[in-house]
Sequence to fold (155 residues):
Amino acid sequence: MNDQNKERLDLLRQMAIFKGLSDETLSFIDQNSPSVTVAAGDYFCHEGHQADSLYVIQSGSVVVLKKWQKSEVQIETMGPGDCFGEMAIVDFQVRSASVKAVEDCMAIQIDRQTLHGVFNNNHEQYAIIMMNLGREISHRLRTVSDRLFELERSQ
Fold:
């Protein structure tokens, strides 16, 4: 295993959505997930477009943007070790936001087909991923709910 593969595996291993997975499952995900590069100013994905993968940021930073009255509003900034696009894995809907590279980025692209491969190989490992994704989405929903509450209180 070269240093780049070890770094990718270490990054995946540290992420909440992959906690509790076996080395075999993490290796399967790593081997079936390409690294993609996106230049500063370019987009990983656009709100409203079809979605079938999530991304784990290896280097660089991104902003999450939402359309509002013919412009884009920044929702969040993310960097190495963060992931985005996980809703696409769970709900099979279009992208709920756009993600733009602030600086040159490299990310691991994990698609639904790779996770389906985990399902075919080991139902228990797949269930762990889905439970972890549910927790991550729930955490983000609570954060948004808190922000909305504070906004409502301030008006």
Remarks:
- Helices lie at 3-14, 23-31, 86-91, 112-121, 123-154.
- The chain has one domain: 3-112+122-149.
- The chain has five helices and eight strands.
